[in-house]
Amino acid sequence: MLGRKQSLKGEPILADYGPEESLNESADIEWVNKLWVRRLMRLCALVSLTSVSLNTPKTFERHPPLQYITFVCDTIVTFLFSAEMIAKMHIRGVYKGEVPYLKDHCTLTINSLAIPDTFCSTDEDSGYQCPDGMKCMKMDFLTSYVQGFNGFEDIATSIFTVYQAASQEGWVFIMYRAIDSLPAWRAAFYFSTMIFFLAWLVKNVFIAVITETFNEIRVQFQQMWGVRGQIQNSTASQILSGDDTGWKLVTIDDNKHGGLAPETCHAVLRSPYFRLLVMSVILANGIVTATMHFRHDGRPRQVFYERYYYIEVTFTFFLDLETLFKIYCLGWRGYFKHSIHKFELLLAIGTTLHVIPGLYLSGLTYFQVLRVVRLIKASPMLEGFVYKIFGPGKKLGSLIIFTMCLLIISSSISMQLFCFLCDFTKFETFPEAFMSMFQILTQEAWVEVMDETMIRTSKTLTPLVAMYFILYHLFVTLIVLSLFVAVILDNLELDEDIKKLKQLKFREQSAEIKETLPFRLRVFEKFPDSPQMTILHKIPNDFTLPKVRESFMKHFVTELESDDPSLVEGMMKQPTSEYWESNIVFKKRKPVRIMNKTPKVRSVGSSLRKLAITHIINDSNNQRLMLGDSAILPVVGAKSGLKPQGTVTHQKQWRMDQKKFGSRSIRRSVRSGSIKLKQTYEHLMENGDIGAASRVSSSRARPHDLDIKLLQAKRQQAEMRRNQREEDLRENHPFFDTPLFIVPRESRFRKVCQKLVHGRYDARLKDPLTGKERKVQYKSLHNFLGLVTYLDWVMIFVTTLSCISMMFETPSYRVMEHPALQVAEYVFVIFMSLELALKILADGLFFTPKAYIKDVASALDVFIYVVSTTFLCWMPKQVPSNSAAQLLMILRCVRPLRIFTLVPHMRKVVYELCRGFKEILLVSTLLILLMFVFASYGVQLYGGRLARCNDPTILKREDCVGVFMRRVFVTKMKLTLGVNESYPSMLVPRVWANPRRFNFDNIGDAMLALFEVLSFKGWLDVRDVLIKAVGPVHAIYIHIYIFLGCMIGLTLFVGVVIANYSENKGTALLTVDQRRWCDLKKRLKIAQPLHLPPRPDGRKFRAFVYDITQHIVFKRCIAVVV
């Protein structure tokens, strides 16, 4: 159990008076604490010490009179000490009272503690050890009202402390207190796991549950929120308008002239140059505003802002003219029906009032800084994203109203409950109560509000007060804040029609494999073909007909420029078998290099030659089809039954005797035992008639299913075309798919390297023969072992050990000076060298289909290897600041990223995060724009007005001179001063300066302060300083910024990441009916029968015990006991 052990100065205090310097005769204290009494008591103590020193038998034998002297002294001293004791008992009480006498040894004051107060450990081997002159003492005698309400003394206090730590408010201080009192590893492990499970996991579970609840509401009540509004009026018609620049949709209403302006003015208004001019002026206004700054050089504040007044008048005049020009062109009714025009009109009126001398740099500055919001119109992508989030304002507006109502109601209740507490201003009035409850909503120092309230209530009501604040905090942080994420996700949800269109689009994209090869492979197409010829040592009948490639047949066949009907008709008069069975030898049209010289033969017509070659091609393709070759798949729904990809075909179909030429190879493949066709392509007919199979399948299938099959066939066709191109390059270029251009393509050495690189644990849990799932134990472990290859497992292990060794490096324990750390560096570089060498020799470096360097992850691996090798070869002995050695040490820190590239699941998470970069960039742009608006407002209103003297008693700058005594913080415990004690303080000079952590003197410091506030930290200091410096009304400024920036802006990041992940996963595109079907499948999967053990009917005693354990009463009793 963690108890409070404080470092005390010297021994435990034995009296309730302070040092002698603080006592004087005129002090209004009891007579026992007067100075002469204390000196008399000290004299009596010295006399008693002397008497005890003389009180021995030998001393009395040598000096007999000492017996009487010591007796008299002891009697007097005893009388005086007894008188002091009786007086203190009478004044302070024996057992009862504020400081009873018998508990006098436990009196503790502020001056008894270390500065600052700290926890300590009585165990010399762990925790913080007190320095010399101090003692570690356990404070069991202090109540929770003094030392605080957090700790682990009992179950209630422990639950209270755990919840406080789980809210991530002040948990670091509790952890460091435990580290000072206990072994460090125990406290760090306990609090780290608690934060992980209770703070991160539980909070995200609430977000997931509430988001899923919103999805179910959308599924069950599709019309709950109504139809989403459109950017333009649904009744407005749009037409296609085209010019030299392209086509675009134009609303008909835009062409209607509602104003009195001529056509020239309308042309100017529609001109992109006019919009560019307006956007440039707004951007210039924002840049000029950003140059405002204030210097603390003694000059008055108006000097720094007076020249900006005239510039602001100029910008306001120009933008007012723009507004009047639009009203003149469109008319009042046509101008006012657009929402953006309403916003522009509001800004024009507000900024016009703002330039009035008496209203300049007042609250109307909001209108001037909001002009930069119009820059969103300059980016259509950003405008669409903003509309998607804030356009459907029904849900988000309802949630904001609900949050404000909740704050108002809770503030009213809290004010009525705690307004009577003495010396407590947080709930005295409604504005203060509202700020306190809003503070709890943001979780910033909410524990202090609760503790201060609990201290000022009675002991019986303290648990109720704690429960009240905990329940409120639990509701607003886990439910209300999660509702913002759910609503933003719901706004990012697509319409049903758009979902269907995106589904079709993704189906087409999935079907359309990228047919073009990457550039690293297309390089080979720039070189001339140089196929290699081989000598056959067997007769042709011993070989299965090979795949006939277009790249090879081009050397023998030429396409007909035009079809000659007479020639075709003449050839068709003769039986086709004569052409096939004739012994005519065709002469090649284009010479190629062959091993043996061919005899001179007569030339025949190109049409007859092409017909015979076509028969050879079809015969080869039919045989490959029966053998299940994926390179010659049929296209479902095509006009011709079989359209081989990558072979030489002609436009006009030749009539061929399928029975004569096609069945020969088919029957031969069937006789050889080929049953792969039936297992792979069940839609093919037995005699090879593919067209009939497609007709049957298309007649039975629904149109929607047919579309899916066509898309699948399209995907297969695209894959075939891609594979065909690779096969052509492999056939025509000897260096294609040759690692480093030196390792032969089919060499045994490369095959060995490929086995080493691609070898992995076989995690298949199904029998390859029967197809049934095998019963194995630890199925998850089998899948985990088969996650990556053996080589990747080795590199994950080596990289992890290397990263662990880097964790032991310190400025005094460097890797350059200790061989133990160098061993890990050498091992990592050696293993990674072997890994890269094997992968490059197996798959190639760059110009191969499965090259090692083909994505960013592999490039990162090479970069890590180069950095590690360079560091190992250099191994600098000194690492100066801002040197190349320091840069190399910094680059070594990216080594743990290798684990992300090696583990597929981690790589997928990083990939999904990177895919949402566009949306994350848009959210970041919106937050920067929001910070700029509020920073500009802060510079104009608070620049130079927050500085003050560090002496609270000094209010003017000219009086802030000299030195003063500054009180030093000691402890958070509610300890009081002892009699005649004063707070510890030190002499410091008076300084007139801004607050220590923030100011609004220029745009940079203002944005930095607001960025810090954006993390929910430090905004209370900004609020308190603004209230004290410029007035309570200006606290609205920081509250609005917190609400917009933190509760909406930061949740946008969470919503965008979740939405992007869901869209990439596919669940975001599910329609209402599809989501219902998925929910039904989940419920059916959950509704599984319980697997209860059977009742042992053969044995009476076991059956009796079985009946008892299965009875509902027994189960309820066990639940109560637990």
Describe the structure.
With 1122 residues, the protein is mostly helical. Among the domains are: 35-84, no CATH class; 143-223; 260-378, Voltage-gated potassium channels. Chain C (Four Helix Bundle (Hemerythrin (Met), subunit A)), CATH 1.20.120; 396-492, Helix Hairpins, CATH 1.10.287; 779-902, Four Helix Bundle (Hemerythrin (Met), subunit A); 1089-1121, no CATH class. Helix content is 56%, strand content 3%. The chain has a two-stranded antiparallel ribbon with strand order 1-2. A two-stranded antiparallel sheet has the order 3-4. The chain has a two-stranded antiparallel sheet with strand order 5-8. A hairpin with a 2-residue loop joins strand 3 (238-243) and strand 4 (246-251). It starts with a strand and ends with a helix.
Give the arrangement of secondary structure elements.
Layout: E1 5-9, H1 35-54, H2 57-62, H3 66-92, E2 134-138, H4 144-147, H5 155-166, H6 171-181, H7 184-220, E3 238-243, E4 246-251, H8 263-270, H9 272-290, H10 306-336, H11 339-354, H12 365-369, H13 380-390, H14 393-418, H15 430-442, H16 446-455, H17 462-492, H18 496-511, H19 519-522, H20 550-553, H21 565-572, H22 576-581, H23 606-626, H24 658-671, H25 676-680, H26 690-700, H27 703-732, H28 748-758, H29 779-785, H30 790-807, H31 819-843, H32 856-874, H33 884-891, H34 897-902, H35 904-915, H36 917-942, E5 948-949, E6 963-967, E7 985-989, E8 992-993, H37 1003-1013, H38 1019-1030, H39 1035-1065, H40 1072-1086, H41 1100-1110, H42 1112-1121
Antiparallel strand pairs: 1-2, 3-4, 5-8, 6-7
Helix pairs in contact: 1-3, 6-7, 7-17, 9-10, 10-11, 14-15, 14-17, 16-17, 17-39, 18-27, 23-24, 28-31, 30-31, 31-32, 32-33, 36-37, 36-39, 38-39
